[in-house]
Amino acid sequence: MHQRAVRNLANLETTQARITRIFDAAAGGKNHFLADRDTVRHFDQAAPALTTAARAVLEFLTRMIRYLSAEGVDQYLIVGSGIPSGPAAGNALHDAARAACGVAPRVLYVENNPMVVTMAQATIEPFTDLVRVVEGDVREIDEVLRDHVVRTFIDWDRPVAALLLSTYSLHDDEYAHYVIKRLRHTAPAGSFLGLLHTTFDGIPPELLPAIRDLLAMTLPHLAIRSRDEVAALLEGLDLVPPGLVWVPEWRPGDDDQACREEPGSSGNYGAVARIP
């Protein structure tokens, strides 16, 4: 195990649930703790959909990467995926990029969760020179983009796909706009911006009070936006068809079944935009 990974183990917070670990637990992964599994159980008692929603999100992320790879992208800056361990071995996001690319892609994960960083550095980086994991927070986007690994591992003179998946921590609308602006202006022409965003739009009104109460106890700082509010973040961007939609509706494949009959139960919108 990397020495930096060993050093980080002592700093892991195990008693407080975290959104990326919750989704990992819901998707059947291993990068989570008891607090995260308990949160999944509480959510499923209030509205039994989180496990399926987590699968729908993973399927969307995989399809998005396959699409971008088909468009010739071979560099990925993935901000806040949690590096989910739910997919079967060989089907992680960087595996999907490698399988879809004609050449070996570079994948750089940026994570603010110490456990995710520690486990990924110990279990992924030693086996490939094409995947790197750095600790960083989307709420400090300037610091992220100044990070030495971010600046040198990605070739910023060529197109890159910047996948913004940690919007759940961007509460301030003005700063959320700034994050997208920084990514747009940093990425060269021909790049793409991918977005994932949580919403309450698909939750039946009678369940909203229970969901809000549960979030107040488990994830009090989770950023939730309506479709109109998410669309405002993407204003001025050239969205790839079908645009901003529920994640199960974004270019679904025949094998993608999670939330297919009720896309709104995924609880997330997704979109991909071209950067001119």
Describe the structure.
The protein is built from 11 helices and 8 strands. Helix 3 (34-46) packs antiparallel against helix 10 and helix 4 runs parallel beside helix 5. By secondary structure, the chain is of the alpha/beta class. Strand 1, helix 5 and strand 2 form a beta-alpha-beta unit. The N and C termini lie far apart (41 Å). The relative contact order is 0.15. The protein has helices spanning 3-9, 19-26, 34-46, 50-70, 93-100, 114-123, 141-146, 148-153, 173-186, 208-218, 227-233; strands at 75-79, 106-111, 131-135, 161-164, 191-198, 238-239, 245-246, 268-275. Residues 1-12 have low confidence and may be disordered.
Q: Point out poorly predicted stretches.
A: 1-12
Largest sheet: 8 strands, mixed
Between the first and last Cα atoms, what is the distance in angstroms?
41 Å
- Helical fraction equals 40-55%
Task: Write a brief structural summary.
The protein is α/β, with parallel strands linked by helices and 276 residues long. It is built from eleven helices and eight strands.
Write the layout of secondary structure elements.
Layout: H1 3-9, H2 19-26, H3 34-46, H4 50-70, E1 75-79, H5 93-100, E2 106-111, H6 114-123, E3 131-135, H7 141-146, H8 148-153, E4 161-164, H9 173-186, E5 191-198, H10 208-218, H11 227-233, E6 238-239, E7 245-246, E8 268-275
Parallel strand pairs: 1-2, 1-4, 2-3, 4-5
Antiparallel strand pairs: 5-8, 6-8, 7-8
Helix pairs in contact: 1-6, 2-3, 2-4, 3-10, 4-5
